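Subgroup meeting minutes
Present: P.N., E.W., G.H.
Scribe: E.W.

1. P.N. recapped why we're keeping a running log of single-chain structure predictions: easier to compare across weeks, and new members can see raw inputs and outputs side by side.
2. G.H. added today's entry (283 aa).
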Amino acid sequence: MAAPMATPMATPLEALSTTALFFTGALIMRGAGCTINDLWDRNLDPHVERTRFRPIARRAISVDNAIMYLGGQLLLGLALLLQFPTPCLYYGIPSLLLVATYPLAKRVTNYPQFVLGLTFSWGAIMGFPALGIDLLSNPAAFAAAGALYSSCVAWTLNYDMIYAYMDIKDDVNAGIKSIARAHEHNAKSVLAGVSAVQVGLLAVAGYMAGAGPIFFIGSCGGAAVMLATVVRRVDLKDVKNCWWWFKNGAWLTGGTISFGLLGDYLYRREQEQSQTASPPVRV
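Output recorded in log:
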């Protein structure tokens, strides 16, 4: 989404290399988040069927060794962050506060998935400064980044609510809070509402970014179809079914959005190159 807004428009190589860096960073920091989560939850995980065999919970890895491993993950994350333009440091480092504390949310609120969304979606903001776009001096980019970030937060609420249904019985016994427990009796309505919010915010982001029909049909329309399919077909009372839709629904929805964004970028770049290559008109 940021690539067509860059000045000059980002080349395919720049867009691809930046995407690769973000992909690698997501793997590293997602892993660090999991380590932090397992450290915080080492006394809760043994009481949940799905998590009781996690390495720290079953004492296969000591707390000290886990902390050392986490330190290595964070150093790798920092090394990767330094590959981006300097402004990305100002956007990236504050996210560590969320990464370190989001596992605590399940102890104090019925909506820990919202905090998870704030954490996992941070890259939606960083993509813009990574391509040299100053969000503070570019109102359209600021609005696009904010809407995209908010859309990703809504998406996290969606897929992680399905994920939470796998543990709902054990969570009751362990005293763990979740959106699944809070909306056990109107879950499909909540999923449908959050899906609508996600697609709506995605459309706002595209509008502010100057996206064209390919984005709105491919990304927004495709996401709406995929999310509606997930909400309609997921069986929230079946653990295996929840896992299947959590995993595959996320890949299919994310893939649809990504292909729409890619198509929009390639089309807009071709249009820009065509205009640049056009010979001047003689009067």
